[in-house]
Design goal:
22% of the residues lie in helices and 36% in strands. By secondary structure, it is of the alpha+beta class. It has a domain of 80 residues: Thrombin, subunit H, CATH 2.40.10. The strands form two sheets. The chain has a four-stranded antiparallel β-sheet with strand order 1-2-3-4, with no helix packed on it. The chain has a four-stranded antiparallel β-sheet with strand order 5-6-7-8. Strand 3 and strand 4 form a beta hairpin.
Length: 128
């Protein structure tokens, strides 16, 4: 009788160990982040060749028409800020232009994001 309980206990332990593996494999490694930003309220839209870029109050996402996929962009992915005030596209240079409320500017060309903080960092004096 004791042998049967021992075998049953071993089987239960093995089944429990196997059932928890999918949960453990879904964990992010230490030092990585997952963004849960509000992408529901779209404010600006621009068509850039085979991609459609859309800005929201949490970041930017784009729809790739070539493979019907959606991609989210945030500070985690290299954007400099979150509050996009203007969105544009230059067909000449094939560059998406993001202007933020704090005067920061990001350029997206291909898979690269370039920041131009010059206006944001410039001290502008106003007359009263």
């Amino acid at each position: 009788m004791w042998i049967k309980h021992s075998v049953v206990n071993k089987i239960l332990v093995i089944l429990f160990g196997l059932s928890i593996l999918p949960v453990l494999s879904g964990q992010k490694p230490i030092g990585t982040w997952t963004s849960y930003l509000p992408y529901g309220n779209a404010s600006k839209l621009v068509v850039a060749e085979n991609k459609i870029y859309c800005s929201t109050n949490g970041g930017v996402f784009y729809y790739d028409k070539s493979d019907n996929s959606m991609h989210k962009l945030s500070r985690e992915d290299g954007l400099s800020d979150t509050e996009v005030s203007a969105l544009g596209y230059s067909a000449e240079s094939k560059t998406v232009i993001l202007a933020y409320a704090n005067a920061n500017i990001d350029l997206i060309r291909g898979n690269n994001i370039f920041n131009i903080p010059d206006i944001k960092n410039k001290q502008i004096y106003k007359r009263k």
